[in-house]
Amino acid sequence: MKSRRLARIFLIAALFIVSYFTWQRLKHEDQKKTPEIAEPHKTPPLIPSQNYPGPILPPSQKGDETISAPPLQRGSRAFYGVLPEGIKNINDLPMANKPSKEWKSNLNQHLKKIGGTKLQSAEITPQESYIIPDGNAGRYVERVIIRIRSNEGEYTSFFAEVDSQSGYVLKSWGAAIQEKTRSHR
Amino acid sequence: MKSTRKKLQFNDLLQGALFVAPVLVFSLLLTSCNPTELQSAGVRTDPNTVNANMISKAYVYTDDPTHATGNKNLPASFNIGSLLGKTAQVITPTSKTSLTNDCLLNQEQYFFGTTSSTFVDCLRVLSSDSPSVIPLQPKSGNWNFTTGSTEFYQVQAMYQANKSIERWLGALGFIHESLHVGGSKSLPPALPYSLSDMGTWWFKYLSSESQMTKSAQLTVYSTVTDDSLKNNAYYEPVANALRLGWTEYPGYKAGSAKSVLMIQDPSILYHEMGHVFMTLFLNTRNAKLVGSTWKPLNYQAFPYYGFYSELGAMGEGIADYFAYAMTGHTTLGAWAFGSFVTGQRPMTEENSLHAPGISSAVDERLSYPDYLLYEPSQPGFPIEDVHNGGMFTSHYLVALTDSLKSECFWDQSTAVNHVMLAMAESFAFLGDLTGKGSDYNNTSKSIVNMHPNASYDWYYSVRQITVRRWAQAMARNIYHFITRDPAGCPNFTKEKSEKLLDMYGLLLFRHYDDNGTFSNSSSNSATRQDSFAMATPLGLFNSTVGGFGSSMFGSFFPEAMSGTKATPTNVDELNRTKSVLVPKAALDFKTTGAYSTIFIDDSQKFGQDILSTILFQGRVISPSTGIAGPEYNNSNNRISPGEIIGIGLDMVNRSNVPISGVTILATPWAHMKVTDAVTGKSQPCSINGFPSLSEGAVTCTDADVLPTDGARFKKPVTGNYPSKALHPVCLVQTTSNNETRWVSQDFYRKNILQLEDKDCLGYGTPDFAPAECLARFMPGKEMAMMAKIDPQKSYIETLTKAYVDHNASVPDEEKYSIPGPSSSSVLILEMNKWIPPGTNFTCRLRAQFSNCSDCFESAAGQDEYTDIEYAGEKPFKVLDLSFIVLE
What we know:
The complex is a heterodimer of chains A (185) and B (887). Chain A has one domain. Chain A is built from 2 helices and 7 strands. With 887 residues, chain B is of the alpha+beta class. In chain B, 27% of the residues lie in helices and 14% in strands. The N and C termini of chain B lie far apart (87 Å). The interface between A and B is large, with 113 and 150 residues. Strand 7 of chain A pairs antiparallel with strand 6 of chain B.
C-alpha cells in the first residue's frame, strides 16, 4: 500500500518534471526569434485575465507586511503607507487634521495668490480622498489634479496631494513634459 | 493526478491551438488579400461608396516630408498628400465606430503558456481638447478624409500612435518572457511577474480606482493650434494625453494658415509616446495586491521633476531613441523642429547636424559630460536644457543597438527589444515606490527608495535617478540579462559593454550594485545585509528564474546561502579610460564668504515672479502668512528679515575636468542628535569640524541619527518627537558670556527671542517644524541642480563666458543675450520678519554630483552607500552656507 502510494507520487513528479523541461526546451528554441507584434483587434478582449489560472509557482506576493501591506481602510478612505509603531488598528490612529469643505476654496485662493498677474485660470479636479502617515499620527489628504494657464498662453498640469482641512499642498508630481523649441532659425 | 494530467493535456492543446491559429489566420489573410491602391492620377474610389476593401482603412504617410523627399528646404506650404502610400492601411478594428483602438499584451506565464490581456479603447484620437470636438467616425466605412483636414490628421495620428503601441507591447511581451520564463538568469528581475494582472503595463496605476478606466485611455490631440502649442508638443500625465502643436514658420502672421504641424512629422509623436512608455516602465511595480485586486499606489514615479534634472535630460534622449526605434532615422524632428525653427536633434555622431570634431571614433563620441550644454546649431554657445543635455543618452542607446546587431547577429528589431529590456528592468527597479524591488524579494525590507513612507522623498529629491544610477542599472541589466543569459548574447561581453559605456563617459561606477543591499542596512563591509543573499530557501525554490527548482543565486552568489553578504560585480578598471571621476573636494564655494558665492535676488518683483514661475513648473510654494512675503523684499542684495529670497550658489569646479549633474539639497537631513524627545531638544552633530564640540556640537554616529523610515523632525501631532529624524538645515548662532554656540532655531526662538509657535515660519501648516522657525528653505524649492561646471570655472562662468566673450568683439546688432542661470539652480529661502538684524545663520546644505569619485562608497572596494545613508552626510559634500541677516 505504502509502496504503491510512493510510486504514484513518483509518477506524478516525473510527469510534471518531464513536461516542464520539454516545454522549457521548446521555449528556448523560440528564444532567438523576433517576437511578433500582436494584432490587438483580432483577439477578443479579456479584461484583465482574471479567469486565467495563476502560475503554479508564482514569485512571492505575500509574507511581506512592512513593504507590501495593502492599503488599510478607515471609513471610506484608504490608508497608504506603514502605520506608526505601536498602532495595530487603523481606527486607533490619532489624526492630525479634520476634513473640511474649505480645503478646495483655500487651495484655489492660494493658487491665485502665488500665480499673481501671470495666472489666467486655475482648475482643481479632486481625484481621491485618503489617509497618509504623518509622524505618529495620520493625516486626511486629497489627491487632486491642478491645471493652470497663464495670460501668455502657457499651460501645465500636475498632481498634488493636499491637506483635507486647510488645502495646503504637501506634494506635487507629474508636470507636463514640454518640448517647446526656442526660436526661429 | 487526473487534474494534473488534464491540465497538461489542456496546456498542450492550448499551445497547439496558439500555434495553428495564427497560421490559419495568416493564410486567410493571404487568400483574401487585395490591396487597395491609389487610382491613377491620385483619384481614389468614390468616398461615398462603401468599398469592402477599404473598410476601416485609410491612406497614410509613414515618414516626415524632409526624410521622405530628401529635401531639407521644403516650403511651409508643402503638400503632405504627396507622401501618402499607395496601399491603404488598417486604422482601427472594423468593430470601432469612432477613432479608438485596443491595447493587447501577450504575456508568457510560467508553465501555463501565453495569456492575453486587453485594454479596450486604450487609445483615442481627437483633433483638440475643445469641448465642441466630437470623436471622429468613419465615412462610408473607411477613414479617408480630405488631405490636410483635421479629420485627416486625426487618422494619421491614430495610425502612428497605434503602430508605436503595438511595437512597444510586442517588446514588453518579449521582455517579460525573457526575464521570467525563458533563459537562465543570474539576478532576480524587477519587472513584475504578474504584469498582466497588475494592469501596470498600461495606465491602470495612474489614477484612483474610481477613475481607473477613464484614465487608462491615452488621448492624442492631433492638431492643437493654440499659443501653448506653438513650436511645441507635450505629454501631459494627469490627462494621460499627448498634445501635438504647430510650427511657427518664417513669415507667419497671426491669423494666417498654420500649415506646418507636429503631426506631419511622425518622429514627434513617437518621441512623445517615448515619454509615455518610459513612464510605464517606471511604474510597473507601483501597485499593491488588496485581496485579489491590484490597486495603484497614491504616488507614481514620473520621468521629470519639473525643471532641469539629469532624469529629465535622459528622458528626452530616451524618448528620442523610441522615435529612432520606430523610424530608423537618426534625426528627430527633421521637419517639425528642423525646417523652420531650431530644435531637431541628431542621434548618431555621423549625423551631419553635428559640429566638427564629433565622430564615431572612440574618443570623439558625444560623451557625458562634455556635451551636456551642446547645441548642434550653435556649438560654441552653451545651453542648459533637458533636450540638449539628453543627447548623450540617445547616442549611447543607438550605439548599443548597433553593437548588439553586430556582436549578436541580431536584426534591428531584436536588438531594439534587448535595449528595451535593459531599460525596462532599470526603470522598473529605480521607480519602485513600494521599496520591494523584485517579486523575488521575500523579505519584509525595502531594497530601493528607502521605505514606503519615504519613497516619494527619496525618488523625487534625496536619491534621484541620475546619469550614474541609470548607467549603472543599464550595465547591471545588460550583464545579467543579455551577456550571462545563454538565450541572450554571451558574445556581447562585459568588457564590450563597459567599453561602450566608457566611450560615452558613462562608466561612472566601480561595481554593478547587484547584491541588492537592504535600504536600512549599513554599507559597512562587516555588517552589511544583502537581499539577494538573504533570500529564504523557500523563495529560491519558488523562483521561476533559471528554471524549476534551480537556484539562481547559487550559481552567482556562492556564499548566498550561508552569509549575509554577496560580492557585487566589479567594473574592470582597465575599461575606464574616458569616464573621469572627480573627488567631491573639487566642488567648492567660489570664495570662502557666502555673499560672494551666492547670487541673491530679493526684489519684490522676484518674490512674486518666482512663485508663479515655480507654479508653472508644477510646484506649489506656500509662503508663511504674515511672517514673511514678497512685500518685505527690499532689493538690497542681502538677506533681510521677512524676505523671500532666491539663492543661487555659484559653485566652482577646482578640478581639471568637468563636474556634472550637480545637485544641492536643502532638504531636511540627519545632522542633529535628539537629546530630549519630549521637548524636541536637539544638538548639532559635529560634521567636518563644524560646529566644534566647544561650540555646542555633539559627536554622532549613524546609529544615533539615521531614521529607518525617513521621518521628518516636525512638531508631533501627539506624543514625542521622533528620536531619529531628518532635521531642517539651518542653525543659528548665539553668544553669551563671550561664548559662541550654534543651536537649533527652536532653541533660539524659545530661549533668546521668546517667540511662540504662531510667530514661526510655516506655523499652521502640516510642514510646521519649530526647528525652522526663523529661516527655512521652502518646501517645493529646496533642491538646486546644475547640469555642468567646466574645469576651473564657476557655474555662471560655464554658462555665460562664451556669450560674454562673443559680445565683447562684435557690434551691438550681433550680440547675443546672455543666459542667466536657470530656475532649477535656485533655492528659495524664507526669513522670519522677527529675526533681529545681525543674527548669524549657517545652513548645512548637501551637494553631490554624478561623476564624483568618493560620493558613493567609503572607499574603493567597499559597497555603495545605502538608501538610509543618504539621510546623512556620507554620500555628500556638506556645504556650510553662512550668512548674516542685515536690515
